[in-house]
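INFO  loader      accepted 1 record
INFO  loader      residues=325
INFO  predictor   begin
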Amino acid sequence: MKAWICLSGGVAMAGLATAAIAQVKVDPALAREVAAMRDAYEKMPDTPGTGPYPAVKEIPATLADHVLYRPANLAPFGPDKKLGILIWGNGGCSADGASARLHLAEIASHGYVAIAPGGIYSGPGATAAPSRPAPTTAGGPPPVATSYKDVLAGLDWALAENARKDSPLYGKLDPKMVAVAGHSCGGLQALQIAGDPRIKAVIINNSGIFADGSQPITGIHVEKSLLKTLHTPVIYILGGPKDIAYPNGMDDYAKIDSVPVLVANLPVGHLGTFAKPNGGDVASVSVDWLDWQLKGDKRAAKRFTGKACGLCVDSAWRVQRKRID
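INFO  predictor   done
INFO  writer      dumping tokens
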């Protein structure tokens, strides 16, 4: 039986708790390993994050096809303290808005709302996912379950809620503190959105536009020309050479020449640290990038700037930078 696994780059790899989408046959042993990791992740409880604002996961009444991560207590936020906004592309471009739940809750706990398309189809509170379209006539997997428009809908909703007087989020969000991020196929969705003038920060996790110019994912078309639409600093967080997205992410880094860009490799492979408690090291780096880019946090900036930047001197990471200092 063919095994199909979610991808971000030239060959297939798994996205957390996602359906298969890549048009690449892989070793069944690898598929079993990924499935075991997925099953263990789904059994982990939700966590509130380590930030000062313990987070919750919910499906908003006014946005039933997305999952929202936010501080449980919104009282501290208002005219003098605003929440940042992160819109997220799921691994595999799936419709499981809980696929990166530990990662997104960690970010939310530091003063953000994070919004992912889809429902809660894995982990605590999961419901049955809707049926997927049939495989293509060519024998490949069905089209992706979400598009970049679904990711972008999260931002449109957040900004509308910020202006709606009877919304719990009324006046609590800062429209100038908006970021987009995504894992694997979701990272490609983030790149499709990154040119939107409302976006002020970009994080690409275990992803990159296909270096060979191919379009192997049914339902998503990306080209290197997207890199020219970037207008903010961008960080690529990759899993080292054993990350299937590594060649494509590194090729993106080499080709980006108009905005500051940093690529940080942690040699953990394509699944990153999304299944680690509170999203692991990748979530920690993501929070600091957002705090620096959106809030001007000087402490957070030190992790990326200067000759002895925090990531640069951390032996666990391999960092390359252009125009960052």
